[in-house]
Write a structure and sequence with these properties.
Radius of gyration: 21 Å
Largest sheet: 9 strands, mixed
Number of strands: 12
Number of domains: 2
Helix content: 25-40%
Order of helices and strands: EEHEEEHEEEEEEEHHHHHHH
Shape: globular
Distance between the termini: 44 Å
Structural class: alpha+beta
Strand content: 15-25%
Length: 330
């Protein structure tokens, strides 16, 4: 299965992954489906094996097959209920409440196995973290390969560099996230989604309060390598035992990456040299995020695609969360 970016669009400045088709305005669901190349459905197809000229059905499994080209995106049990792309957009619109969510980007990864949509949910302006603008977005992720339930969650986006600031309460299970396994009709879960996401619009209030506090507190130099260990370490070394970056890094490459994060923190990061932000915990958090979103190197022809997957599906989100948790505890 190809892991290349299959299709996507974006509105505004070129995003960190540098991929996709630029559109001139934010899109409605119908426009987004077409521009993102998501106007296709999947179906469950029976699977057979051939031996000695005889076909035998594998009754316990079904292929998740794209109806436009026959591409098999996954193999699941017969009880698996696909959430079609159009259903996901309709669900997103219904949760937002107006039916007119304005999509800033959407697309598919891994040859159609994973799809996403990102929309701005509050048009009343940005949050301000001591003058640093942060917008409010809602992200939906869905999988057609069985490896990802449909989920929706809020994610602040830092305007100056489009950093995606994924953060939850320390130790929580992201109560502001809605999950739906691929079982039954997704529309029956609308009330649950509205309740979870509606109540947690307070997430942004809490985020702004904590981020503003972070921007008011300096991060002393001795704590910076400890924060890096908490965010990027493998758990074998406790942050409190770290004095210098070399105390926890496992390779020359990681040493270089940590030094890059330090350079971002010390003023080379986008907007991190501004008065009132430089040297603060907020700057330290954004140095980590900028490294994950922009600076971390990915090799090969699919480097930009792998960067996006790392941010939303792989370890990048966990790194950001660990940095956020540490900086809100020390």
């Amino acid at each position: 299965m190809s892991h290349e970016m299959e299709s996507m669009f974006y509105y505004g400045e070129v995003p960190w992954h540098g991929l996709g088709k630029n559109v001139e305005h934010v899109l409605t669901a119908e426009e987004a489906i077409n521009e993102a190349g998501l106007n296709w459905d999947v179906e469950l197809a029976q699977i057979y094996t051939r031996f000695g000229g005889k076909l035998t059905q594998i009754k316990e499994r079904r292929a998740v097959r794209r109806m436009t080209d026959g591409q098999v995106l996954g193999v699941m049990s017969p009880s698996y209920a696909p959430v079609q792309n159009r259903e996901a957009f309709k669900f997103f619109d219904s949760v937002v409440g107006t039916g007119e969510a304005k999509y800033h980007t959407a697309g598919s990864l891994r040859g159609g196995q994973r799809i996403w949509m990102l929309a701005k949910v509050d048009g009343k302006g940005s949050m301000s973290i001591k003058g640093d603008a942060v917008d409010k977005y809602l992200l939906l992720l869905n999988g057609h390969d069985g490896g990802l339930a449909l989920k929706m969650f809020f994610t602040p986006v830092r305007v100056v560099c489009m950093n995606t600031l994924m953060a939850a309460e320390a130790g929580s299970k992201r109560i502001e996230t809605f999950y739906a396994k691929h079982m039954g009709n997704i529309t029956t879960k609308l009330d649950t989604a509205r309740e979870i996401l509606g109540m947690t619009m307070k997430f942004f209030d809490g985020f702004q309060e904590k981020a503003t506090k972070m921007a008011m507190l300096a991060l002393p130099a001795p704590q910076f390598p400890k924060m890096l260990c908490a965010a990027f370490g493998d758990g074998r070394i406790r942050p409190e035992d770290v004095v210098r970056i070399p105390d926890f890094v496992k390779s020359e490459k990681q040493q270089e990456e940590m030094e890059m994060v330090q350079m971002l923190f010390e003023g080379s990061g986008k907007g991190l040299n501004e008065k009132g932000i430089r040297g603060t915990r907020w700057a330290a958090y954004n140095a980590v995020v900028e490294h994950v979103d922009y600076e971390k190197q990915f090799r090969g022809d699919n480097a930009a695609n792998n960067r996006l997957e790392n941010i939303w599906f792989w370890g990048g989100q966990r790194i950001k969360q660990r940095a956020w948790d540490y900086l809100n505890k020390v």
